[in-house]
Amino acid sequence: MRHVWCDRSHEWRAGSYTWTQVKSVQNLIERCLNQYMTQAEVIATLQVQADVDPALTCLVWSKLEEANPDFFLSYDVRLKLKDQVVAFNYLVEQQTRLLQKLTLALPQQSGGGLMD
């Protein structure tokens, strides 16, 4: 599957990279995949933290996708699940805050009974 962050214009440069560079970027990408990063996050992270040309990251990513299509299909599902968990946790946090505000806004009753 082709992601929007990489296009075919980078592939012509494939001959300008050494095998060592390609293997190094592959290892870095695999480490990022273990952190459940999106393709865009991987590209940005490798560019900023390891000074990797985004074209090289795209090239290696696309070759990994071609060689491991089943993995990337399941990886995309896991990324979607991760996004859903993050969204769910955010909503739970918001609900907790609202309930705390509501509890603080309710009048306090002495004695704990309704008929005091």
Task: Give a description of the structure.
It holds the Pfam family A_thal_3526. By secondary structure, this protein is mostly helical. The protein folds into two domains: 1-67, no CATH class; 77-104. The chain is built from four helices and no strands. The protein has helices at residues 19-34, 39-50, 54-67, 69-105. Helix 1 (19-34) crosses helix 3 and helix 2 packs across helix 3. The chain starts with 18 loop residues before the first helix and ends in an 11-residue tail after the last helix. The mean pLDDT is 88.
Number of helices: 4
User: What portion of the residues fall into strands of 2 or more residues?
Assistant: under 5%
How many domains? 2
Q: Count of DSSP E strands?
A: 0
Pfam family, one: A_thal_3526
InterPro entries: CHP01589_pln
Descriptive key words:
0% strand, CHP01589_pln, mainly alpha, 4 helices, single chain, 2 domains, 116 residues
Task: Note the topology.
Blueprint: H1 19-34, H2 39-50, H3 54-67, H4 69-105
